Amino acid sequence: MATQGFYVESDRTRRHHLIFDEEIREKLGPLIGRIAHSHHWDMRRVEAEWSREPFAAPPPFPSNWSIDRLKVAVLLRSADAAQIDSRRAPSLALAIRQPLGESLKHWNFQNHLNRPSLQNGRLVYQSYRPFARDEAESWWLCFDVLGMIHGELSRIDDVLRRRRPYRLAASGVLDHDSAESLQSRITVEGWIPIDARISVGQVTSVVERLGGERLYGKDPNAPLRELIANAADAIRARRAIEERESIWGRIDVRVGKDETGDWLEVEDNGIGMSAAVLRGPLLEFGTSYWTSPLAREEHPGLYSRGFTSTGEFGIGFFSIFMLGTRVRVLSQPISKPGAGVPQPHVLEFENGLASRPLMRLPDESEWPREPGTRVRVWLRTDPNLPKLLAPDIPEFVARMVGRLTPEQSDTRILAKKVARVAPCLDVDTFATAYGSGPVLSVAAEDWLRISFGDLSARLGEREVGSVPGSLSRCEAIFTSSGHPIARLGIPATTEAATIITVGGLATLSGIPGFPGVIRGGSPDLARHKAEPMPLDIAEVSAWLRKVEGGLATQVANFERQAFAKGSWYASLYLEAGLRPNKIPCFLHAGDLVSAEQLLALEIPEKVSIVLSDRCQWGSEGDVQITSLYGNRRLLLLDNVIIAPVVRADWIHHYLVPVWGLEILPDFVMLDGERFPWCLPLLCLETIALKLGCNIEELVRSSIRDDDGALSPEFHVKIGTYAGEDLVGTVLRLEDPKISA
């Protein structure tokens, strides 16, 4: 373009040029054009192209003149970048042109600025009027542009330092990297700029993948759980700092609606967050405030007071964007000794993580009454997102028959959902929906006090079943120091499981066998998986003693599965070093009996104990006696007792750590060999007691192999099923008095 001629449509006889002087255009036009073209080049290319030594200027310029291509290029680049004041965007031109969108933001921020000054090698920009709250995006655009100018000047300075004996007077921009410092010169009114850019590459993508649906799934309970977890941590921290009682504090979960739509809100009266936390750890993806240097600076000695946090990974807050992109955080930190009342702040996200949040002082209507935090998210409309307040059948019926207003029904539904999410919370938690309420959802540590039926319903158990009322006094399991760690009940179904909670919040992890809850730790990122806290074997044994009667009663209710469950429960007691005398676990003459009942029965002089519930049935192969129990076609011989070897491995697999294995029950020495306690041994002990002898005497009188060693017999008929023989592996016993 520097050498090209242009015609005006009305006059095709005369050409116009950007460079009027023909001689200069001819001699320097190509160079001028190429330098102009280099305006958008990377500085490395500029350095490579233009760093050669200056050359003599052509006539008609004086002979002592030279042309420094690098100097010309960097002067043009820096001048164009640095001129961003009101001279470039005058008010009159702004009013006449009325730009829109991004263009308006550029015009607006430049219209605010005075020409820059120079201070210690840095350009200093100042505004002659503040940026209002609705001009926040223009302010941030200005901040970004100043960063760009600084980068350009610093790169130019670096090249000149290496290639030339001179430097530019300005090598950067003052406060280009500090929003907090810059606002003292480029002022704001009614809000506070914070640089909330998260220091992870492609942050929006990372958060979407790790902090949202990819991690938690399309479950609205996930962000609710994370908000409650954060609130509970803040309250526990305040308890520790202010030495309050262990159940002090309050969390409010609310659902409401305003002119922009429905919203969910969680509020606590915990320690609150300072401005430094709001613009720092809260927004630093993967950084937990509780483990940050800022936490140690703001609350020294917190952990020495016994505080432990539920939050570990610093990603829970970002799950809130699963529910909506508009989020508001209002927080006021607690006062420190000798200091005044801290300033509350509001942090607002208008478009999720796609744009920077805005931090400001709260409006008069928002001003908090006490320290704490309130987080609100406006729920997006998404047909794929499960409804937060989907009614269950009782609430739906109550609403339909008019016993509850829609608002009252929604409050009860929300209260149930909160209790399901946080069944064992140590903080009073209330629910309010559309102005109806508040309703107490969870009372602090009430999981230890409410009936087991209510606890089962809270945990989502559909079939609570018939549980003996006397057990409500002895379901809790405590540590040796008296701290409650679990509450287990009598299973009403064969699918019962113990839910593992972390910080009072339910996870998706469970322990099969018994319904109830147990505290756990080390959750995964999504709080789906957790490991139960280790228990002392003595505490588990004490609990098993208390529930033995209830388990014995409940086994019969399992009907066809009663034998399988009874033998499993009995093996569990043996694993703990206990004798399950009341639990039905043996099959004799078609009846399921306990050790106590077996002791009261008439036992033949010669008895065959079946050691495995797997038997051979006719030509069909292996069958399990436990699966045939309750079938009228199963007929066992009168002298047969089925006492299968069943390994529960429940206590030491789930509850007691590996290093507790040395306290397993002792082995029994029989005939010079060691045998671990199992159902056959329990049966032997019971029969020996019935016959008035000990196990050793009973074993000595039993059938032996050719070498004289105690040995089981194989393929012995034990009964019939559907008219065909059942054969199994048995241990034949005989009354020692008869054999003598």
Description of the molecule:
The chain has 740 residues and is an alpha+beta fold. It contains 23 helices and 32 strands. The strands form 7 sheets. Strands 22, 23, 24, 25, 26, 27, 28, 31 and 32 form a 9-stranded mixed sheet that branches. An 8-stranded mixed sheet has the order 12-11-10-13-9-8-14-15. 38% of the residues are buried.
Tell me the layout of helices and strands.
Blueprint (H helix, E strand, L loop, with lengths): L4 E4 L2 E7 L4 H16 L5 H8 L4 E2 L9 E2 L1 H14 L8 H7 L3 H12 L4 E3 L2 E3 L11 H28 L8 E2 L5 H4 L20 H8 L2 H4 L4 H22 L7 E9 L2 E8 L6 H4 L14 H6 L27 E7 L12 E5 L8 E3 L11 E7 L14 H8 L5 H16 L6 E6 L2 E7 L9 H7 L17 E3 L5 E5 L8 E6 L2 E8 L3 E6 L9 E2 L4 H19 L6 H14 L10 E3 L2 E3 L1 H6 L5 E5 L3 E4 L3 E4 H4 L5 E3 L3 E3 L8 H5 L12 E3 L2 E3 L3 H13 L3 H6 L12 E9 L2 E11 L1 H4 L1
Parallel strand pairs: 6-7, 8-14, 18-20, 24-28
Antiparallel strand pairs: 1-2, 3-4, 5-6, 8-9, 9-13, 10-11, 10-13, 11-12, 14-15, 16-17, 17-20, 18-19, 20-21, 22-23, 22-28, 24-32, 25-26, 25-32, 27-31, 29-30, 31-32
